[in-house]
């Protein structure tokens, strides 16, 4: 006859069941590991889609009154750490960072550029610093025409310096983007597009900005193409999105080698990257990228 009492047997059976469940979970057989308990709504791109669904969709507002300084001085030290925002982002996104003796100024480093997939050696200098630029995921001019025009100066300054809206990228790619949204420009690195548009959605959701119909549809198409198991927070493991615009297609800002792209849709007065480049407004007015010598060019009406 066993020496174990009838009261002890249920306790041992319970302990055995718990042990078996833990072993199965460690082996990847539990409901969470298999995905059975997660469901489509738990995937990261589904979260971005849910945020997108809550954004207001409306036509772009006026660019009247827009200037870069309406967002405060460029690269203000908003976190009061003694370093300006540009150096904070460079230090965050570059590797092998070397700083000046002031403890802030980034003198050199290496960037694995998310927009192109290239590795860029950064070296601070009058002729070299522009190789790596800090991009606003949601461009400031885009924010202006999708809600920021009516903000307080302090809120605009926070957006302009928010690390969640900033990323160090290839300079020419940043200039080709200008102030375009996802309907007319996407990073040529297809594997980064999920993360790119998901970041834009998060920023717009956090600040209460709206999206245009074309912007909404482009972002939704990309996120739906990411796959239920992919992560918009990193490169898309499913590979190129067949439904996403080709980076060499007209309007993406990255023309293919030897090809002549159709004029992109641009916004009068917004920054542009390549002097003498041509574009058109949504209403069909011919525009040219130009400006006084020594100043950053803008889209202006072509003569």
TrEMBL record:
Keyword Signal (UniProt): yes
Region (Disordered): 225-303
Xref: Pfam families: GmrSD_C
Top-level lineage group: Bacteria
Domain GmrSD restriction endonucleases C-terminal positions: 84-221
Compositional bias (Pro residues): 234-248
Endpoints of the signal sequence: 1-35
Protein name per its UniProtKB record: GmrSD restriction endonucleases C-terminal domain-containing protein
